What we know:
By secondary structure, this protein is an alpha/beta fold. 49% of the residues lie in helices and 11% in strands. The chain has five domains: 5-203, P-loop containing nucleotide triphosphate hydrolases (Rossmann fold), CATH 3.40.50.300; 211-356, 3-Layer(aba) Sandwich (Rossmann fold), CATH 3.40.50.300; 405-512, Arc Repressor Mutant, subunit A; 524-615, HRDC domain (DNA polymerase, domain 1); 624-727, ATP-dependent DNA helicase RecQ (Arc Repressor Mutant, subunit A, Orthogonal Bundle). It has a seven-stranded parallel beta sheet with strand order 3-4-2-5-6-1-7, with helices on both faces. A six-stranded parallel beta sheet has the order 8-13-12-9-11-10, with helices on both faces. It has a two-stranded antiparallel ribbon with strand order 14-17. α30 runs parallel beside α34 and α32 packs across α34.
Amino acid sequence: MKLSHEELIAALQRHFGFESFKGNQEAIIESVMSGKSSFVLMPTGGGKSLCYQLPALLMDGVAIVISPLIALMKNQVDAMRNFSEEDGVAHFINSSLSRPEIAAVKEDVMSGKTKMLYLAPESLNKDENIDFLKEVKISFYAVDEAHCISEWGHDFRPEYRNIHSMTQRIGAAPIMALTATATEKVQHDIQKNLDMMDAIVFKSSFNRPNLYYEVRPKTENVDKDVIRIIRSMEGKSGIVYCLARREVEELSAKLQLNHIAALPYHAGMDAATRSANQDAFLMEKVQVIVATIAFGMGIDKPDVRFVIHYDVPKSLEGYYQETGRAGRDGGEGQCICFYSPKDIERMRRFARDKPVAEQEINNQLLFEAQSYAESPFCRRKLLLQYFGEEYTQDNCGACDNCKKTFRMEDERELLGIMIETILQINEHFRSEHIVDILHGNKTAAVMSYHHDQLENFAIAQDEDEQTLYTIIRQALIADYIRKDIESYGDLKVTAEGRKFLKYPVQFDIPIEVHNEDEDEPLDQVMAGSAAADDVLFSILKDLRKKLSKKMDVPPFVIFQDPSLEAMATTYPITLEELQNIPGVGVGKAKRYGAEFVRLIKDYVDENEIIRPEDMRVRTVAHDSTRKISIIQAIDRRVDLDDLAESKGMSMDELLEEIEAIVYSGTKLNINYFIDEIVDPDEKEDIYDYFKQAESDNIRVAMEHLGYDDYDELHVRLVRIQFHSDLGN
């Protein structure tokens, strides 16, 4: 079936409302409509889906679209139905449908209403579906997210490797394989597995000029850093990717505590919740989705403005595809990755139980990701080079490295030694091994191959290992060496590299220049300003004194000095903020807090104070369960000695917990225990002392009451009850 350019444009406008094709779309559509197989490599946002949607609508029969995720199928089917007057134009068959629903789908397919049928490879493999599809006219097969076929791909799915045998059982038809990310190795795997080595290959540029790439060190304050980034993008949608489900849950909870509308998404959640959270993000009911890599494949949200990687990704393919979900409309897209070498080691350990071949692949992919993270070179140039595309500009102006200042150092001598070493070991080893030899690292591999006997062993032991890796990366860019895609990344010397050995030329590598006059990090500035505001502290003490007279209770019953100091440091202006002050809690905030927060707010406004609260990261409490169990035990009148023993605590530790609970505003009654061990007259004397005391300090109380006459444990117990009775 062949249509003219004008006819295709008319069909495009009629079905999708567009007036022109993007990039290679028209050529790809013409290819499949002429009965040829196609390999389509097109970055996220380039319009891959249209490449099979339009020809499916125009050709006789039904296009079988093989897709990896139920959520992705639903998203694509819903999108197609929005473009058509007929809901039956697109359907999916997967485990989410009941038998009657599947029967209804098959009826639409047989009637000719359906032009696109989406199936996961697992569904395609079922005999009942294969038998059904044998009776249907297939226009072509579209294998979406085709990188799932390759073990070198970032979303490898073993079921994808059976697609070819399944399509052969159903009946031959042209195949279109589509992916947003594929190195030469992955592309070769896909074409070989699908038996489409003669397919027409359509490659679009991987360059996304609107995306900004940055790698930041992952520190203990990474949560605070993430929150700061999101706050700086107020009102803009974003995705935060984490490797582990636990991290997803914890980080999303922390964002919520810090007044950021965020929801989690990972494969361990039930399907209904996962779908609801995805829809909430798409409908902009929440600003941020915190997810594992299960989220986002094929999600058509054009205005994602930032993508944050909480951990370094497992592969550069995965990183490129995930960052590609930012700025699909051509607008702003901030891509920030947090990197720690510890994360790389952790992921290597996770793969130790896998077969050796899988470990090799995993380690090589991790090495590429690590090299990217640690590189001083243009991030854009590195990404494009990884996918076999040359980027000729010296400075992209839109990555962190291109915004830094570097001085260049000529390392032609070290490069010559490195090329020489690669040749000496017959070009059979990867970058890490070369660095180990030159640096003098006596690893198991170096020793087993006797490479410690080489003349160049330890010749660069005084050089930083990162400098050696930088030389390797720069040599790859300069085409002096290459990585063999058929092996696990062994370094090979090119013709240019051999020429360099004979006739060395200048070989500069960048060394970052740090400006010693740079401003202090914000954290340090904040830390230096974290002392209590003496003026406010004094005003708060006056208010406390006034209230204590009005309520006829000692001032410390209302709030103790450390609580006032915290208020004078963090400036809480709402009851919610106040209850997070140490020694306050919900009860005291409600009972006494209104006048305090009103006073603090007026003080902040009058003095134009910038509050540290706006930069504070709230954390999820981990000890609340124990506090609740202590309160419940006291409500049941459990003997405090027995309670301490059951919690594995000393009596002193238990009393500290109970004091914290009471000082935070929770009312407790421990009279049942006091009455068992404290004489009634003694209890009354202690109680009367605290009524008139200026301080509830135990040392002062013991000196007044007398160490010989009163037991300190008794005094502490009565003090707790006194605070609970009068303060809460």
